[in-house]
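Obj.: predict assembly geometry.
Materials: sequence records (below).
Method: joint structure prediction, all chains together.
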Amino acid sequence: MSPNKVQIEERTREIVAPWKNRQGGTIPVLQEVQKELGYLPEDALMVISRELKIPASELYGVATFYAQFHLKPRGRHIIRVCRGTACHVRGSLLIQEKIKNILQVEDNGTTEDLRFTLEPVACLGACGLAPVMMVDGETHGRLTPDKVMTIVESYE
Amino acid sequence: MSRTNSESFERIPLYSDLPFYRKQKRIALRNCGLINPDHIDEYIYREGYFALASALKSMAPEEVLAEVKTSGLRGRGGGGFPTGLKWEFCRKSPGNKKYVICNADEGDPGAFMDRSILEGDPHALIEGMILGAYAMGADEGYIYCRAEYPLAITRLGLAIAQCEEYGLLGDRIMDTDFSFNLHIKEGAGAFVCGEETALMASIEGERGMPRPRPPFPANKGLWGKPSNINNVETWANVPNIIRNGGSWYASIGTEKSKGTKVFALTGKINRTGLVEVPMGTTIREIVFEMGDGIIDGRGFKAVQIGGPSGGCLTEEHLDLPVDYESLTAAGAIMGSGGLVVMDEDTCMVDIARFFLEFTQRESCGKCVPCREGTKQMLLTLEKITSGKGAMKDLDTLEKLAVMVKEMSLCGLGQTAPNPVLTTLRYFRNEYEAHIRDKKCPAKACSALISFVIDKEKCRKCGLCAKNCPVSCIAGDRNTPYVVDQDRCIKCGTCIEVCPFQAVSKE
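Observations (raw structure tokens):
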């Protein structure tokens, strides 16, 4: 069950509270809210803006500048396909295409049943295992297109 | 009863016998993989915090600084600026509130040495930072770590808590007048935050955009206070320098590049991993001895060094002793030390396009040369790799590259053209083949290749047709299968599934 407006605002206010009169709270607050809610709903951003006394436009600027922040709901499982150099030369584009094919989504897209979100990322820092993808916290390395199906299926 | 079988002992090689380790000299990585990073005691068993203890007990801050200057250590994040000098600027900068910052926003695709230190030996960098803070007179520090490294963040948090418990961080460290507090800041996924002024803006909660220098961070840094930023590998070298002396460190390496450098050896190579070698080691030793050469016995084509800011070097550079100066002269840079090996199946035009795609996406958009220049360069490269290029595009590309390099505000834009410039310099023939002959010599650019089934080799099993995601392969038990070139999306599935190697790229 996704939380309603009141619940979102209440929880956001709790997260902002310790940062109210301190410097540098914007990003940690956005991170914390996203950790709890999975994304940054507009209702939450409006609360942060009021509580931290930052114009909503500026907050929107920060939230859209960083790749980590999302303004739309995301899937239960996040598939991060590494598109770093080492993975690229070892065929990560094929892996990415294969996943798009299996899930029928575009890059940064979410499946209709909210099961998966596909996010190509610049580098996961596991170049020795290239090509690599990460599903939630788990890293899968030395991938081939035919291994991908089994891995994807193992996440409900 | 079992007895010692000397033969079974002899079968087990020593680390120092293994070709991967034989020529390595591990200073920054000395504990990685050998100690449990969750236990501060294990770091102390390995003489951890000895340097800090002796510095606080018997060295003045100036003396710590002098040792770092003597060592010749230079910034390992890419710039190669002398660390001691950078520290001195910050130390001499007036002000009673100063910050030291660790750049752990390892964003270069193909580099993972900082990750290894953060996860495998977090105390090494913490000790380095405490020593730096003592030398520069700072009382507060930040580690800016990318959010893509959750394990690193957990271990750093644990390490900091242990230090506080042992009295190595906090007020009156080791019962002296010196106090220092350390915090972790999680990055939020922006490559440009590896640039020091952008990184500080990000800590302050702003968009991570760089600003013009001067003023330099040493004078006006985080929250307007004098600040010093070094990267993880640089900090991790510091305790070793203080423990063994600056002149010990300076005895390793080449004339102008002292000590060791960690390289992340990856790509089309047999043994991938982190190698820490003295400066001046040749690329040949790294790629062919430690890395055991190219996979499947393919031919070596190039090595990409220094990430998106670096360049591609060729066969003729294999005997180049690697240091800051020699790499810059060859058109590459040391960068963070990513070393991606490429074989004859790698298209160099595609690699240039790949890096431009990355830098263009990560350009923060503040300055026009980088924002618009990288975009135009990328469009030109895409035109070439899709077979629509003209010879004059190469001149345009070169002109744009020089413009972006000279006029961009920060390091991102100033170095973004390097992959294009070096590939144009060393692999111009590949660009020309794409433009003039509409061919990709490495058979990597999908617009310029087609998948063809050899009629003689085809055994009519139908596996390719069954697996083709767009059903563009037709045939049956009696007729060899054929790919419909107009509908083919060039995914390569048919090559993979054909048990008879009847499919090939042309």
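Conclusions so far: Helices of chain A lie at 5-16, 26-37, 42-52, 56-65, 85-89, 92-103, 145-153.
To do: check interface contacts against the pulldown list.
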